[in-house]
## 1
Amino acid sequence: MTIEVKIQLLVFCLVFTMCTVYQAWGEQDYYEKKDFFEHRCMKFIEKSSNYHPPNESCCHAVREVNMVRICRMISAMDEETIDVRRVVWVALACNNPAPAGNKCGSLTVRQPSWVPPPPRGIYESSRDDNQAPNDLS
């Protein structure tokens, strides 16, 4: 083998090593972000409870992470305690949904056919319940 071929092979190995190490560091960083998301949102995404709209603390966590990456990282073991449908709903309710077609755990995200209900009190008004909404008298 000539010196040029050896140098090319060495450069290729160096670049390959740099790319794989960087990707591994990125994944480790997202395990921490996944833990952060789960900690803040567990009561809204766990299987053993009724679904409740997420609070501001959970939504803050959802907006800080890349939900596509978080969804990709949900394992079968995670799905024993986490309802992936609720993960999708929480992400949608917090305005950071995973786009349709992406995997979230074992679920493929579909185009939403509904919008999560608004927080209580936003659309309440002081009008009398017996009064028609368009009645101006």
## 2
Amino acid sequence: MAIPIPTDSPFSLANIPFGIFSTQSQPHPRPGVAIGEHILDLKVLVLEGIFTDCEVTFPSDVLTHTTLNAFAALGRPTTFGVRAYIQSLLSQSSSPLHSNPSLLNRCTVKQIEATMHLPFDIGDFTDFTSSKTHAKNTHSGHGHGGIDADMFHPPRAASGRVSTILPSGTPIVRPVGHLPTSASSASLEDLSPDTPVESRTLARTTGFSLAPTNELDFELELAFFISVPTEHFERVPVEKTEDHIFGVVLLNDWSARDIQVPETLPFGAFNAKNFASTISPWVVTLDALEPFKIAHDIRRVPSYLMDKGDATYDISVSMEVIPGGLVERDVAMARSCLRNSYWTFRQMLAFHTLAGCRMRTGDLIGTGTLSGEDTTSLCSLVEQRKHYPDRMFLQDKDEVVFTACCGSPQRGVGFGECRGVVLPARL
């Protein structure tokens, strides 16, 4: 190998995820791939003419852009070929990375010395509801009755704010909102965000106040980016959807549960969710995930989403809260999997285009919270607190860290980290 890869690295030769990075010496963002603890600078390889020997003919200047949009829009056959060529550059002893130490030195950067950016210029963001457990646990917690038996027929999704999607590592400022007084202990001037409170339903609220959220929460999800765009009014059949998917990232759809209380009915969350969503910076391609395809569970699906290749991916996801305060407390942890998503990536995209919605390169589609039935697989605090009432909502200085992986070390595929630390509200 031209670049050493630690055995426990999420970025093995089998992975080769794409991202956008910069360095202090070269602050202009550019494409790279993660390999071990390093980044392979694709812009340097383009300028050195290395891609002229790639078996796939493509306009290599797309790998000098500040986003992955133009590269992803070339389509899966091209991105597959480029990724395979990069793997050969790293692994074959006859490649220029092996024979030219100067080139290797100029095109490699340590990840700890790089700043990661959003990988795409994101046009639209859609978040599905895909976990029946999460829907059951949260649907009945904000003034609803029991969960609608047909809540997954048809699939449900909501539009999110692109302007507040952030790369991993960006701090999250505690949001201020319109809170029910029964869910807020004081006014904006004297409220202490360190004091945990219970959620209240609409029926029990008596008034409102402006205050920082006391119920800041995370939601552990995955999300995928659109590659080849679709035409307006074009409906993509489920079996053709993978032609339009570039790759997958981790997603934390931060939520303020007490702000959400008065917003939920009849329209759904607004300020409770529009302040921040964090994604991991490295996009794991569908080709890297292909060896980890598994048959999905048998479930009821509308005829227009029936899929002969009904499969999901064997992706394990996990999260932990690293407490930032000095007070010892029960700390949130969870481990779940993509299999807890009722809908597959293919079905989500097929449904999204059912009425003719145009999809653009760089659009982001989230799975929704990936909670499972087991109490250790509940992927939000509002759910965990039903079983662990002493578990507090997120406090200032807490850091939330998501990870995900497929397979075993060395031949496995990892996603890196999706993390964010909570900062005090701006009063």
## 3
Amino acid sequence: MAGEELIELKFRLADGTDIGPNKYNPTTSVGSLKEKILAQWPKDKENGPKTINDMKLINAGKILENNRTLAESRLLVGELPGGVITMMLLGLNQQDDSPKKSRCSCSIL
């Protein structure tokens, strides 16, 4: 796919800081993209993600799936020529690794 145009992306963290922009091949998987982001994650940020499963990559209100490529996840805002696509990146904070008890309750009125 020699003639494919690279997609320019930057990633906005929850505190408003950005990673990027960088250019990526449309055949890059979302999981691979998350690995690259993890390597670039600011070291001064507390509670950063430890694995790609600790991250959610959101664009245009949709959570991108790890097994899909950027081309398959093509977003409407990505159709702007020469524009940088900004995606929201949420790191799921892992405070501790102790197992949690889940509780469920229902109220029937």
